[in-house]
Amino acid sequence: MASRQQIQPEWELPVFKEAHQLPDFRRDWYSVKFYPYTKPGDDSVFALVGGRHDDEDFYTCTWTKDPTNGKPLLCVAGSGALIRIVDAISGQLLRTLYGHGGEINDLAICPTNPKILASASEDLTVRIWSVDPAHENQPCAAILGGDGHNDKVLTIAFHENGRYLLSGGADGVINLWTLPAFPDENTGKNVPTLVHYPHFSTQEIHQYIVDCVQFHDDLILSKSDREDSIVLWSIAGFSSSSPIPDVLSAPTAHERQTSTRSAFSPPALTDGAPLQYTRLLQFDIPEGDIVWMRFSLFPGTETTGPVLAFCNKFSKVSFWDLRRLEEYASIISTPEKIKDPVLRPKFLNPYQRRQRGRGIIRGRRRSNSPTDSTASQRSGGDVAGTVDWEKSKAGWEMRYAMDDPLKDLAPHREEVVKGLDFCGRQAAWSPDGRWCVVVGSMGVWAVLQRWGNK
After folding, report:
1. Gyration radius of the chain's alpha carbons
2. Model pTM greater than 0.85?
3. Which of these, 45, 117, 132, 372, could form a disulfide with 35 (CB 3.0-4.6 Å)?
4. Domains of the chain, earliest start first
C-alpha cells in the first residue's frame, strides 16, 4: 500500500478521528456550526446546540461577529421563539431578538454581511434581522411570508451573494426569495420590509417534509424525510450573475396552475410547457428517512473539490466529492486513460481478482482510499492479480456516473463512528475543509479529519 505521502490531497476524504459523549447528557444535539471568520493558521472552533435549558429546547445556532470589535458572537434559538446573541468568549447574553410567533428551527448568517441574520419559524415565516447596534430598537429588517409556506419553516440557506435565500418546510415546499440589499430603507424603522411572494416556489422536488436546503453555486441541494436521497437540481433560467429581479415580477398565488411557479425565464420548452427546473443528481442516504437529519456541503477551494457530508441514523457518515463526478465523466470515455495508472485518477481503483496458488480463489475490490501501490502504478494496476475492467467500471458507475438523474449515487467514502451509537442530526465543515463534525442523539458528537499528516 502506498505511503501517506503518496496520497493526492485533492482526492482525500475524511476519516474518523474521535467521538465524544457529554456526561449525564442523553438528549439530541440538533445543530453544529464552525466559526466562519478564522484566519489561516487559526484553530477551527465549532459550537453545538441541543438539549433543554430554562424550560427551552435549543434547535439551531449560527455565528456572527461584533461589528465594532470583531469578537465572535453566537446566535442560538429554539422552542422559545427568541433569538439570543451571546458573546462566545465571556458567555454574556448581549441581546435578545423578539418577534416570531412560534418555535425557531433554523438560523443563517448572510455570507456577505455578518450584520444580517435570517431565521425560520413554525409561524410560517422567515425573518431577516439586523444585529447592528445602530438598529437595536427595531432589529427586524424584513419578513418573508405571505404566500411562501403554509406549514412550519424548517430550513433556510443564503446564496453566496447574499441576495437570494432558500427556505424549505413541513409543507414540502422549497422557495427561493429575492432579498433587498440590506440595510434597506426600512431597516431600523418601525415597519419591516414585507416580502409576500418568492420568485420561485415548488412542491415537485420532494413529496414529504423538506428539512435541509443549501446552494451549490447556482444549483440547489435539498433533502426530505422518508426519501433516502439528497437531490441536486437547478432552477431554469436562474443565474446569480443576472440582474436581481424586480419584486413585482414574483409570481403570485393567482398564477398557481401547477405546484411550481417561477419568475425566471425558461430556456426551453417541454411539450409546450415551460421547463421550470431540472433534476440533475441524487445521492444515496439509506437510513436517513426521519425528520431533522441535515447534510452539509463544503464548497471547495482552488485545489480541492466540493464535498457533501451526511450522517445517517446508525452512526455512518457518507461523503461525496463532487469534483470526482466531473473528472470521471471526462475520462471514462477514453479507455487508454482508464488503463494507464499515471493518467487514471487515484480514486478510480480497479477491481482485481487476486490469485493464490493455482487459481483465483476470491474477488476483492480494492480500498476506496485514493492510493495505488507503487508497483501497481508501474504495471498498470495489475500486480496482485487480474484486473476485471468490466466489474471495475460497474463499481465506478455506482459512484460517479451522472447519466441518470433518478439513480442514487453511492457514497465515495463511508466512515462509521466507532464506539458510540447515535442518530446523526447535522454535519458541519471547518472553513478550510480539513475537519468535519457530525452531531446527533444521546449527546454524541464525532470528529472526522482530512490531511491528518499536516
Report:
1. 24
2. yes
3. 45
4. 15-322+409-449 (2.130.10.10), 328-404 (no CATH)
